[in-house]
Amino acid sequence: MCTLLLTSCFDVIDEVTMHEDGSGEFLLTVNMSKSKTKLTSIMLLDSIKGFRVPSKEEINANINNWVEFLENSQGISNVKKTTDFNEFIFTLGFSFLSVENINQAIEKIVIKNKQSTESFNLRYEFNPIKKEFSRHYTPNNADKNRYDKLDQEDKTIFNEAVYVSIVRFNNEVANCTNKKAVISKSGKAVMIRTFASNIFAGNQNLSNTIQLK
């Protein structure tokens, strides 16, 4: 999947739906439909830019591995995934009892991939009594270094790639701390939208504390 991302324009959307008791649903969507014609051709190749192009079977196998990993994670259930190789849209979603279950899953993924502790740079908190939701994000220097080493053509891909974070609630939002965050017309959702290059270069703060009414 990383090989495909490095060769096409893409959107990444993560959506968190919070309930008043602290449980909720998480959905991750990787949408590469803007480059589906190009990707269809790339999938016929063995390699591109020095990277081996994975087969559909390999991509499905890897996604199934993540599904199995999540199904065996504490507090996580209803794990579902979709793979559309015609439009090149992939989703992975699950229900959670507490946002701490998401934190634990992220930490295990970091350990599983033998990455540095610096990679564990995203955490969620929810206080049902204070009606406060927080997302804590710290820019990853390792990601920045990898981004800086990309050639200009690859950087252009990330300059066009869009990242969107959406958090939905049952109650209306009173305020939030991130100046780039947008509250929906219904008052029950908050969105942050930016380009992937801003994240990798450390120019976009994804942290946000949301106070509910």
Task: Describe this entry's structure for a reader.
With 213 residues, the chain is an alpha+beta fold. It has one domain (2-212). Helix content is 30%, strand content 35%. It has 7 helices and 13 strands. The protein has a 7-stranded mixed sheet with strand order 5-6-2-1-9-12-11. Strands 7-8-13-10 form a 4-stranded antiparallel sheet. A two-stranded antiparallel ribbon has the order 3-4. It is globular, with a radius of gyration of 18 Å. It starts with a helix and ends with a strand. The model has no long low-confidence stretch (mean pLDDT 89).
Distance between the termini: 40 Å
- Arithmetic mean pLDDT: 89
Q: Outline the biggest β-sheet.
A: 7 strands, mixed
**Percent helix among the residues?**
25-40%
Number of separate strands: 13
What overall form do the CA principal axes indicate? globular
Which radius of gyration do the C-alpha atoms yield? Answer: 18 Å
Helical region count?
7
Low-pLDDT runs of 5+ residues are none
Order of strands across the biggest sheet?
Answer: 5-6-2-1-9-12-11
Q: Output the structural class.
A: alpha+beta
- Total domains: 1
